[in-house]
Amino acid sequence: MPGAHKPAVAAPSEATPAAAARAGAEPAGDTPAGAPLATGASQEYPSPAAPPPPRSTSCGVERPPVGLEEQVWQELRQLYDPEIPVNIVELGLIYAMRTAPLPDGGNRVEVLMTVTSPACGMSEMLRTEADARLRGLAGVREVEVAITFEPPWTPELMSEEARLLLNF
Prior knowledge:
Number of domains: 1
CATH superfamily: Fe-S cluster assembly (FSCA)
CATH topology: GMP Synthetase, Chain A, domain 3
Strand order of the largest sheet: 3-4-5
Strand content: 15-25%
Shape: globular
CATH class: Alpha Beta
Number of helices: 4
């Protein structure tokens, strides 16, 4: 982010996306524009006055439309480290994500992620692929995917399912 300070990252806690997924909740993603991306930061935001109308599926079951935040998580779940058969969200590589509306329309998406090791040769490939996928989402005009090594990734950041799959 030009002119912005380096995002502060707290030690992983139960507020991490992987921990939230293990608890059955979706990780929080909306944070105010200009606020640093940081793990462990949790805020509640008021919901819109009236939710959008539900959509129908082919089987007639109504469900609410998928918001941008959920679309971002869906796209990130499609990314895999080529050496590990688990997506980057379940691996605990996503430390923070936020969406913010832009003044002139559209949205900005910011992702703070890590890789399993600073020596990982796939870090730039994963960053570039995440950036490209998120830019392809409707309504997204700006994307920033940053890689950090603080705090370092540990297997404890993985979801329970990932740990079982990888025998941790």
